[in-house]
Amino acid sequence: MRVKFHKNLDELKERLLVMAGLAEQAVQRSIEAYRTRDLSLCDLVFQSEPAINRFEREVDQMALDLLAMEQPMAVDLRFLYAVLRINADLERVGDQAVNIAARVQEMTAQASAELPVDIPKLANLSSAMVRKSLQSLIEANSEMAHSVLAMDDEVDAMNSDAFHAITELVQRKPDLAPQALNALIIARNLERVGDHATNIAEDVIFWVEGADVRHSSDSRSEKRDVEETS
C-alpha cells in the first residue's frame, strides 16, 4: 500500500510540473509578444489559460483525495500541503501572463515609444526564479529554494526603479502616459511572478525541512497576504 501511495505522490508531482511548464511558457510568450508586438502570441497565452485552470483543479483534487484516503504523516503530509499551495501560485503565474498579454494588446494599438524600463531583463529574472523554485521541488533541495528567496530583492529593486523612471518620464512627456502606464503594469505583473516563485520556494523549504519561513521577513509575508486576498 505504501508503494502505491508513493507512486501516486510521484504522479501528483508530475502533474504539477506539467502545469508549471504551461504557466512558465505563458509568461515567456507574453514577454516575447511585448518584445516583438506579435499579437498571435497574445492569443496563445489566452488560449492556454483554460488548460492551466483545468490542471489546477485536477491537481487540487488529486492532493485532496490522497489526504482523505491515505491520511499521510510527517514529510508526506507536508508535501501534499505544499503541493496545494504551489498549485495555487502556479495558476496565478498563468494569470500574470494573461494580464501581460492584455497590456501588450493595448500597447500595439498605441504609438511606439522608447520607455526607460527593461521588461525583458525583469522577465528573465522572474522566470529564472520560477524555474529555480521548481527545480528545488524536483530535487527536494531546500538549499536551492533558499537561494530563490534572495533573488526576490533584486526583482523588487528593478520594479521600483521602473516605477521611478516611468513616473519621471510621464512628468516630462505626458503624451507617453498610456504606453508608460502599460509598461509599468507589466513590470508589476513580473514582480508578482517573482513573488509567486518565492512562495513556491518557501513551500519547498517547509516540505523538506519542516520549517515555516513565510514570516521570516515581514515585508515578504505581507506581499503573500496581499496576493492571497487579491
**What is the end-to-end distance?**
41 Å
**Main sheet, how many strands, which sense, barrel?**
none
Order of helices and strands: HHHHHHH
Strand content: under 5%
Task: Kindly report the CATH topology.
Answer: Methane Monooxygenase Hydroxylase, Chain G, domain 1
CATH architecture: Up-down Bundle
Q: What would CATH call the homologous superfamily?
A: Phosphate transport system protein phou homolog 2, domain 2
Query: What's the mean pLDDT score?
Result: 92
* Low-pLDDT residue intervals, each spanning 5 or more residues: none
Number of structural domains: 1
Note the total helix count.
Answer: 7
Structural Rg: 19 Å
Morphology call: elongated
Secondary structure: number of strands: 0
SSE layout and pairings?
Blueprint: H1 2-36, H2 39-70, H3 74-108, H4 119-139, H5 142-172, H6 177-209, H7 218-229
Helix pairs in contact: 1-2, 1-3, 1-4, 2-3, 3-6, 4-5, 4-6, 5-6, 6-7
Describe the structure.
The chain has a single domain, classed as Methane Monooxygenase Hydroxylase, Chain G, domain 1. It is 87% helix and 0% strand. The chain contains seven helices and no strands. 39% of the residues are buried.
